[in-house]
Amino acid sequence: MKVRIKRLFEDAKLPTKAHADDAGFDLYAHSKSFDDADNVVYGVGVAFEIPKGFVGLLFPRSSNAKKDLLLSNSVGVLDSGYRGEVLFKFKRTPKEFADARGAFMTFQYSSEYAIGDRIGQIIIMPYPEIEFVEVDELSETERGVGSYGSSGK
């Protein structure tokens, strides 16, 4: 499948894959800013034309575990109609350290991505057309209405 992509800046990096069998393409930080809630907003400098019937799913990379950042929406959804720059918005997580007296003090945000770093990945997948049908009853299953922790494992 071919997906059209546009560099919004001459020096923007195109998505890459480390291995041919990887599902996700790495995306690179082109810009870094902060929103009104002090979230870190990274622009990747490219825009996609996702085909109809497909969606781009934006995930953090596994290296995110080494950063003091959490992707604010857990998984981003890049709809086929969107033509703007891909953005990643991260919540900053401060680290706490004990001072000499054992009291805790917060040191602000020691580890973030730099411009040029791989900050996330995109996976492009098809999705089915869905039509919801309202019913009075649902079929029974072994799990039934069991919620969080219902498997007992």
What keywords describe this structure?
153 residues, mainly beta, Deoxyuridine 5'-Triphosphate Nucleotidohydrolase, Chain A, 4-stranded antiparallel sheet
Give a description of the structure.
The protein is built from no helices and 12 strands. It has 153 residues and is mostly beta strands. It has one domain (4-126): Distorted Sandwich (Deoxyuridine 5'-Triphosphate Nucleotidohydrolase, Chain A), CATH 2.70.40.10. The strands form 4 sheets. A 4-stranded antiparallel β-sheet has the order 2-12-6-8, with no helix packed on it. Strands 3-4-9-7 form a 4-stranded antiparallel β-sheet, with no helix packed on it. Strands 1-5 form a two-stranded antiparallel ribbon.
**Strand segment tally:** 12
Query: What is the C-alpha radius of gyration, as a whole number of Å?
Result: 20 Å
Q: How much beta, percentage-wise?
A: 35-45%
- Unreliable spans: none
Shape: flat
Looking at CATH, the homologous superfamily is: Deoxyuridine triphosphatase (dUTPase)
CATH topology: Deoxyuridine 5'-Triphosphate Nucleotidohydrolase, Chain A
Which percent bin holds the helix content? under 10%
* Class inferred from helices and paired strands: mainly beta
Q: What's the rounded overall pLDDT mean? A: 87
The CATH architecture can be given as Distorted Sandwich
Run of helices and strands: EEEEEEEEEEEE
What is the CA-CA span between the terminal residues? 41 Å
Please report the number of helical segments. 0
Number of domains: 1
